[in-house]
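Anyone up for a design puzzle?
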């Protein structure tokens, strides 16, 4: 039996187990997906233990994505993002990947939203914002990062430009949304705004029908931002698509097989 899993703290809320278990059933694989919740001081021992026990692969979630980066051999993208969310134990040392960026790009691709040449606005400069900004820059979009703390936005923009000198990546405070969103083709909320309260990081009057809006929040699936974007005629992409496709890419890294996307999507959405 192949064993895959997730480490984080907490992990009880995770939707990865039903999504991956659905893939194993669909393909007739002898495999299971389990969760592990080590203490913060034990993450290194947890990764070593997983390797010693013959676990095939791990997903990594908060708060361990940066810690695990130091414990594996990251690929180029994970190193540039500065975080690992997928570990493959088939090599020694284990290989680390970041599938969040690929999840962003596949979510847009699935909804037929072209990114090359697009004017994109990313709200948030944390871990999710970093993965989104890198993904959009790699897809040849022009990227503007807007964040409450301007210094963090500017630091993220500088990091992305350092990786891709030809990319157009700018930064500013949330007040820059007034000018940037009306002229944008793509908008991504990479903050947690809208998760706990019915709030939005972007005022509704800025939204328009030529916009594609991805909200990384997936609980609730339909956030206020997405409701107001739909009302403005925009293309809307809920956060479950990003969650789905990062899992799809992880599955493909581990197994070398095409993931059963429809089965994984159905399982994911049945648990939302």
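Challenge accepted. My sequence:
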């Amino acid at each position: 039996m192949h064993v895959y899993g997730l480490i984080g703290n907490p992990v009880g809320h995770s939707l990865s187990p039903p999504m991956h278990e659905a893939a194993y059933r669909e393909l007739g694989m002898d495999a299971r997906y389990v969760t592990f919740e080590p203490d913060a001081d034990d993450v290194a021992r947890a990764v070593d233990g997983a390797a010693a026990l013959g676990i095939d692969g791990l997903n990594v979630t908060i708060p361990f994505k940066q810690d695990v980066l130091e414990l594996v051999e990251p690929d180029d993208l994970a190193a540039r993002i500065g975080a690992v969310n997928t570990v493959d134990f088939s090599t020694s040392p284990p290989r680390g990947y970041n599938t969040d960026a690929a999840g962003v790009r596949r979510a847009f691709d699935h909804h037929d939203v072209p990114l090359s040449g697009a004017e994109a606005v990313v709200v948030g400069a944390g871990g999710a914002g970093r993965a989104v900004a890198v993904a959009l820059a790699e897809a040849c979009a022009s990227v503007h990062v807007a964040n409450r703390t301007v210094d963090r936005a500017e630091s993220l923009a500088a990091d992305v430009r350092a990786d891709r000198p030809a990319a157009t990546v700018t930064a500013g405070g949330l007040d820059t949304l007034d000018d940037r969103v009306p002229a944008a083709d793509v908008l991504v909320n990479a903050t947690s705004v809208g998760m706990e309260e019915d709030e939005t990081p972007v005022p509704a009057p800025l939204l328009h029908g030529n916009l594609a809006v991805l909200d990384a929040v997936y609980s609730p699936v339909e956030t206020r931002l997405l409701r107001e974007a739909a009302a403005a005629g925009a293309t809307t992409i809920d956060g479950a698509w990003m969650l789905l496709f990062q899992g799809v890419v992880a599955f493909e890294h581990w197994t070398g097989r095409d993931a059963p996307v429809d089965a994984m999507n159905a399982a994911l959405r049945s648990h939302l």
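A detail worth pointing out: The two ends are 28 Å apart (CA to CA).
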